[in-house]
Each structure stands twice: as C-alpha cells, then as structure tokens.
C-alpha cells in the first residue's frame, strides 16, 4: 500500500515537472513569437516607409468606392467582375485625379507664357503703380513709393535678377523636379494597389475580420467597422460637399466675369475640403475683382461665398460626417485639422477615422456591460471595404 502511494506521488511529481517544463517552453515560445513578429513588422514598415502614404491612399479610396464597386460587381458577369471592373474603376479614379491636375498644369503654363511676355514688355518701359495702391489705408503711400522706386522704371527686371542667387534657383528647380517624379511614382503605386484591392477586396475583408477577432475579439471588429463608416461619412461630408461648393462658386465666378472661373472653382473645391478654408480662395477672387475695378461683382462674390461656406460648414457637413462617425462636430473638426497637420491631405480622412475609433472605445469603456454589444449590427463578409 505504501509502495503504491509512493509510486503515485512520484508520478504526480513527474507530471507536475512536465507541466512546468511545458509552461516554461510555451512561455518562451510566446515571447520568441512576439519578438519575431514585432521584428518582421518593424522591418516591413522600414522597407515600405516611402510607400506607406501610397498604400494608405489606396485603402481610403477602396473603402470610399467599395459600395459603388460592389453594386456594379454583383450585376456583372463573373469574368467582368474579376478582370474588367477592377481595371475600369482604377482607370476612372486615375482619370478623375489626373485630368484636373493636367488641366491646371496646362492653364498655369499658358498663364506663365503670357506672364513672361508681359514681363518682357514691362521690363522695357516699367510697370506704373496702380491707382488703388495709393488709396490703401495705412500702407498705401509706402507701397506706392516702393513700387515707383523698384518697378516703375525700365530695367527693373535685370536689377532683380542680378540680386538673385542663381545656384539657389538651380537647386530649387532640381528639388521641384525630384518632388514631381516622386509624387508620380507614389501616384502609380496607389493606383496599382487600388487595382488589387478592388480585385481581391472581399477576400482581404474576410482576412481582416478573422485577424481582428483573433487579436481583439468582437471589439476590434466594431472598431474597424466604425473607422470604415467614418471614412464613408468623411468622403460624403468633405469631398462631395467641397465639389458642390466649387460648382456653385464656379457659377458665381462666371457671372461676375472673374478671369479663369473654372480654375478658381477647382481651387475653391480643393480648399473647401478643409473646413472654413474655402474663404481663402474666395478672398483671392474678391481681391482680383477689386483690383480690376469691379466693386459690385466683388461684393456679390463675397456675399455668395459667405452664404455657401456658412451653409456647408454649419449645416450640411456636420450632419453628414457627424452622423456617420457618431462624433460631435467639435471632435470632427479637431480630427480634420489635426489630421491635415500631421498627414497633409490624407489626414482629412485618417483624422476623423482615428477620432471615431477612440470615441467608440471610450463609449464601450464608459457604457454598462450589457450595452456594449448593442451599438452595431453583425457585419457582412465585405463590410470592411
């Protein structure tokens, strides 16, 4: 009997030692796996560092356009949905971005040529000071005197060029050329990534859902869905509203006989993507009209711009963005401004998405446990895009 008890005790001790050894081995394996995963992620981010912005743009565009793409995909044949639609949608996105930029570049080149011709004529005879400069309050007399001393006489352009450091100009030209080339590469990488996101979007969405469940549970899936909803709301509230503002102001510019109304309409639309920034483009248009002596058209443009900006920024935009992101307007505004400051134009979409995710986490922490799963419906297989 004693022998059996000793044998059972020895077996129990042996089993305990094996369990401890397995736990130690499992702990070491977990640490090694985490270290290897963190190292690989860091190396991947280092390798892709110059293209992370391109990948982020492709992801934002794919998320924004996925409902429209998915509707077209369901109505197309299997071959067209697999091979043709990704090419068509990617090409449409590329044209939507490239054509305005190309139009702007052609217009700028045309204006630059006219400006060079005007400069040659002005260099021969000088540029007389406009009459309205002397009438400006406080600085009018000083500015008119400076203009007469530096620009009203012949040969002023040669004097200015003699003072300019030509090596700095050459360096600036080289930097501009390198920057344009780099942005062209980023644009191409974004379109290529967007094509693969369209083609394999549903499969990628299912993988993201599976990974989020394994890493964070249902909460991670809800956070991802809220970020996607915020991107959709931001696209509607920023891009579409900005395009509407640009179109309305373009009509006003044309009626006010502003030079290049289409160019100013595009500038207004781009500026309107940032809340309250459209006033800068409208203000420049007003100053040009005032310089041309058109006081009444300038007042009309200023009043129309005030009405359009006020309605868009106080009524339309907060309702579209705030309803989708479930954020108060203050946090929407701070997310947009902070995102633009940190990530430039991409921050228009990343900022509200990050703020929406943070707000969702806060609401889940602050809400009772029974209410935490009631905020969202169960997602579908492609809800991440």
If you had to describe this structure to a student in words, what would you say it looks like?
There is one protein chain. The protein is mainly α. It folds into 3 domains: 1-47; 52-199, no CATH class; 211-385, no CATH class. Helix content is 83%, strand content 0%. The chain is built from 14 helices and no strands. α2 (52-75) crosses α3 and α3 (78-125) runs antiparallel to α7. The longest helix is centred in the N-terminal third of the chain and has 48 residues, at 78-125. The radius of gyration is 30 Å and the shape is elongated. The termini are far apart. The relative contact order is 0.08.
Describe the structure in brief:
By secondary structure, the protein is an all-alpha fold. 83% of the residues lie in helices and 0% in strands. It contains 14 helices and no strands.
Topology:
Layout: H1 2-47, H2 52-75, H3 78-125, H4 131-134, H5 140-150, H6 156-163, H7 166-199, H8 201-216, H9 218-255, H10 261-272, H11 278-291, H12 295-325, H13 329-343, H14 347-366
Helix pairs in contact: 2-3, 2-7, 3-7, 8-9, 9-10, 9-12, 9-14, 10-11, 11-12, 13-14
Structural domain tally: 3
Total E-strand runs: 0
From the alpha carbons, calculate the radius of gyration and give it in angstroms: 30 Å
Give the H and E element order: HHHHHHHHHHHHHH
Q: How helix-rich are the residues, as a percent range? A: over 70%
Query: How many angstroms separate the termini?
Result: 69 Å
Average per-residue pLDDT, rounded, comes to: 75
Largest sheet: none
Structure classification: mainly alpha
Low-pLDDT sequence parts: 372-384
Helical segment count = 14
Percent range for β-strand residues:
under 5%
Overall body shape: elongated
* Assembly level: single chain
